[in-house]
Structures are given as structure tokens and as C-alpha cells.
């Protein structure tokens, strides 16, 4: 295939002129007039810039000439959708996704964006800005970069110095630069400003992310500039492979051996700043080219010995046209021997006929990459992620560190090997951070700053009882009920299960008192059984006395049910046993009080009350009063029985109190109130009978015991409500022991004193009030 190469000079005017010239007879600028059968145009590869490609397409599209673009895809309008484009670079949407995944992988959420001031730059912003916001990424600044020309160099220097100071003063350590090859020249110019003395701010290391359209290049005056500022840069590039033999082909190229290469002399003179021996320019101003200069000695910013992404795209475009022409020729000749006539017939084919074969074209190039177009006439390929490593001799090396492969499974499309990435020396080879402010560590949460982007926030310590387990959480969370926050409030720790147990001092003390009073009760019961025939024991129904002592014994012992680990059985027995036993005890005291009152009333002449005095009345009172309490307990157990439960709202966060939940608080207080009602009735009757004539009036001691009993249980209710956990249990045990001890001491200690120490008073005459 023959070819012609033209320069657009970055000018739309020259681009129109050259494109029309392609459609004319060679060396004759006559549009629509072709008289040369050997130089028929079949396809065009170009241009490097999207605007130039679009200008070319307006002419070529009229003639349906296939156009292969290898730079940025032009912005299509409704009028340009039918143009004959074949995009040799992958769809830019894959590059956008790759940039987003790269930022998310390294948690870079505060960044700057520089874009070329053109339609593609605006498309880049409109596409990625919403995606950044949706993924928690904020943009610190957005700058549109215009091409720098000599005519406005001073304005550009002023603007560039301001932009450089803004970039270096920003907390953002990551900057994305979207543009084309011309933007690369602007970028290098921007980073060179400190060396030019146009900014006083010292250079800081930044992570630059460049897009695939930006190939490293230099103008003549930039070739000696330091390349260290670009050290550690990450860039996307069209996926490519090194072609076999390409490096060796470049090594043997020189001015002497390339007489047939029309470009070699111009390139050689500019690359080595020399003049050819046969040149007409002033030879005194420059050295004479020897023709044997070594291309490998040139800096990488001037000439790379490896094939770049753009070159690889051009290579594939040329072979795509060749394969399509081959298929078209094979189809035309029907696999016959190609003759000169067939070649002429092929040359007579029109360019628009090539589209049919290009759309279905699929082949493997020389390095094994499959080349084919999708339905949008875009090359199906991916992007490589390159890390630029520079050296002190102005050379640099491209290291492939990752890839964005749209053909791979969704979870494998983006890959990155951060272990081989070389960062700028500013970061001391540590992973650069790019955040608006320092991260909020576990134990604190983020709080938005008013008037600032959502990536900028303050860190606020979690309130008491809450935690955050991860970095930069928006809300503090409550630990589960059985756990509590640790000291740093970054994790939950299981609470220590506590209850009133025998191993602690409080539990041992209360249990000791319960056993002590139980032993005392047993001793008193033994005394009364031993002296059961004495007048003092027989007085006021000794069976009631025995019942009262036994019930008091069980009152002391039932306090032990409240100590130890609560289980279902003990929870069911605690309050019901306490209520029944205490009701029995108070009923016995009430029966004794009624017996005392009725006994003295029966001594009056003509009294009819004598028939009520006796054991039957006392037994009836005890049974009746106890049955009412039994009914309350039965209803309680049938409707809402107590059960073991963890009390997690303890004042001590580290503890979870295992207690017996009362089930129904109403039934519990009904039980206590009924017991209190019996005690008040008993107290009133005993108080009224305290002055009845008798040497040993038991009503006086019952009054004192009931006064203590009522005082204890009246103070119990507010104290019980105001305490929690095991101390609430201790309050109830104390009330049980105190009230039981009061009954035991005030009613039975005086009798034991007389029986044991004053036996002379234990006589019938003295008990009945007869004096000697």
C-alpha cells in the first residue's frame, strides 16, 4: 500500500485544505477530479486531536471515506453521528471507570482536576463529577487549561504561577489531568515554573493521574527540562504490546542508511541539534551531523525507543485497512490468481465499499492481540495503567502496574499491583493520602463542616455507651444489650454477668444474718417446746405461737432464695414464698392480737363475745388471711410469672445484672400491699389493746413489733424503686430480715427472758395479773 503523510499544523484551515487535497489528483488541488489510477484514496488515519479529526470527517464523510482516529474520540452531534469514524482507542467510558476505581482503591477522596479547555474536557467533567459525588469523592479545584502560545505567554505565566501555587498549597495530593498531547506540553511547562523563577512556593510531591490521550513529548526548548517532577506519575494508556523486531529496527536507523526515508533528515537534525552535510543552512551555527548518532542516547522526552500507545493504534489501523483490502480483493477475485488486471480492478473500488469489510473485520495482530470493532465502530480493548519512573540522567521508564479490561469478569476488570508502584520521593515510598482532613479514627464520628464539601468534616467523640468500629463513620452505634463499649469506644466487649452471690461480702453478710436468725428461731422454738406446759407458753394459744415461730423460721430461710444465680425455679419461688410465708406470719400475729382483745372483752359481765374466743377463731383468721394471699400469688403465676432476665441498663456499663424480672409489677405490689394491710390492721388492734390490765400484756409487744414491721415495709417501697440490680435484691432481703427479726425479738425475747431467767414470773397467777 502506498501512503502520504500530511501535517495539520493544529489549524482547521490547513486541515480542510489538506483533506480536500487528498481527494484530488496528486499535486493538483482540484476537488472531485481524479485522473490518476495509481493514487486512489482508500482510508485515512488521523488525526491526533479530536477537533482535527472532526474537521477531517466533515469532508471525508461526504465521500464515505473510512477514517481511523487514534486520539480522543470527537464529540458527536446529531449531524455527525453518521460520519465514517473507526475509533482505534477503546471507549473512554472504560477509562472513566478505571480512574474511579483507582481513586477508590487508594481511598483518594480529595483531589484536583485539570482538563483541556475543549468539548472533550467538558464531557469528562460532566461524566465523572456525578460519579465522584456518588462514591464519596470530592473535588478541591477544577481548572480548564488552554493551549499556551507565544502571543499570550505573559498572561499564561501569570495564570500558571497562580495555578501552581494553588496546586502546591492544596491538601489534595492527587491531581487528574485530562487532555491530549498538547496538554502534556502545558503540563510540563506548569511543573517547570519554579525553575523558571515564576513562583516562590517550593515544590511538593503530587500524584498525577494522566489520561490515555496524553503522550509524553517535548518542544525543542523543553528537551533539557528536569523530568523529576513527573516521577511517580500514573497514566492510562491504550493497551499495547512491544512489537517483535521494532526496537532492533530503530537501533539500526541512522542518517547514512536511510536515504529512501524522506523524514529522517528533518528528524535527525532536530533530535541531535545538528545539520546534515548537504544542508543549505548556516553550518557554523550548529554541528555537522555525522549520520552515525545513536538514537538510544536521546532523552525519553525527545524520542522513545519503545512503541507508544498512539503508535500502536496507528500500527493496528494500518493492518486493519490491509486486512480489509485483502478480504475485499479475495472476494472480488473469487480466490483466483491475482493479475495486474485484478489489481487495477481493486484500485477501481470505491472507498465506501470498504466499510462492509471493516465492520466485520477481526484478526490477531503480530503480537497476538485480537483486533475488532464493536457495533459503535470502537476498538474492543482495554487500558493499561502505567507508572512513570524517572532517573537522574533525564531518562524514564514506564512500568505497567495495572489494567482496566472491560472484557474480563466484572470483579476482575480493574486490577492494580500497588507493590510495584514507585511514588514521588516526597512521600518516602509510603502510600500517599489525599483527604480534606485527617480520618476520623474508630471511637469518633464525622461531623459536617458548614459550608464545606462533604469530604471535609470534624471528628467528634462518640457519646457514652456508643462506638464506631471503622474509619470515617457518620454515626455512632449502640452496643448490643449484653455488651458495652471498651475504653477507646471502638469495639464492644461482653459485659460481666453479676448477681447477688455468696462469694461477695454483701451476699455472705446477708446469708449469715439469715442463718443466724434462723438458728435463733429454732432455739426459741426448742425453748417453747420444752416449756410448752408452762403458763406463759400456754397463754394466747400456743399452737399459734408454734405456727408463728415456724413461719418466722421460713421467713429467714426464704431470704436465701434471693441470693445466688437466678434461675427459673428460684424466680418463681422468691416472691410467692416470701408473700405466703410473711402473710402466714402476720396472720398469726393478727390472730393472737384478736385473741387478746376478745379475751379481755369476754371477761366483762354479760358479754356475748365469749363464744367467739377459742382456737377455732384463731385458725379461721390465719386460714382466711393466708388464702387471700394465696389467691394473689396464684393469679400472679398464672398470668405473668417472674422469670430470669438480664438488666442491661446498669449504671456500671461493664456489668450486666442477672435478676428476676417480676413479670407483673402490679401483682408484686399487690402482694406487698396486702401484707402491709394485714400488718396495719394488726398494729391498730394491738395499739388499742396495749393498756388492757394484765401483768404480761402481749399486745404491747405486738404493737412494737408491728410498728417496726410497718416502718420497715413502708420505707422498703421507695428504696426498692430507687435501686437497681443486685442492690435492689439486697434491699428486699434486708427488709425481710429486719421485719422478721423485729417480730421475733419483740414478741418472743421477753417471753424467753421470763422463761429462762425469771421462772418465778412464769406462773398462772402472775400471767393472769394476780399479785402476791
List the helices and strands and how they pair.
Blueprint: H1 12-22, E1 44-45, H2 50-60, E2 67-69, E3 85-87, H3 92-105, E4 110-116, H4 119-134, E5 138-145, H5 153-169, E6 174-178, H6 181-191, H7 193-196, E7 207-210, E8 234-238, H8 246-251, H9 264-272, E9 274-275, E10 287-288, H10 309-333, H11 340-347, H12 354-359, E11 362-364, E12 370-372, E13 383-390, E14 396-404, E15 414-416, E16 444-448, E17 457-461, E18 466-467, E19 477-478, E20 483-485, E21 492-494, E22 496-498, H13 505-530, H14 535-538, H15 542-558, H16 568-602, H17 615-639, E23 643-647, E24 655-661, H18 665-688, H19 698-722, H20 726-757, H21 764-767
Parallel strand pairs: 1-2, 2-3, 4-5, 4-6, 6-7, 7-8, 9-10, 22-24
Antiparallel strand pairs: 8-13, 11-12, 13-14, 14-15, 16-17, 18-19, 20-21, 23-24
Helix pairs in contact: 1-2, 13-15, 13-20, 15-16, 15-20, 16-17, 16-18, 17-18, 18-19, 19-20
Tell me the strand percentage band: 5-15%
Total number of strands:
24
Q: Give the rounded overall mean pLDDT.
A: 83
Give the CATH class of the largest domain: Mainly Alpha
Using the CA coordinates, give the radius of gyration.
52 Å
The largest beta-sheet arranges its strands as 5-4-6-7-8-13-14-15
Low-pLDDT parts are: none
* Structural class computed from helices and strand pairing: alpha/beta
**Terminal-residue CA separation:** 154 Å
**Overall tally of structural domains:** 5
Largest sheet: 8 strands, mixed
Query: Quick one: overall form?
Result: rod-shaped
Q: Kindly report the CATH topology of the largest domain.
A: Rhopdopsin 7-helix transmembrane proteins
Helix content: 40-55%
Tally the helices: 21
CATH architecture of the largest domain: Up-down Bundle
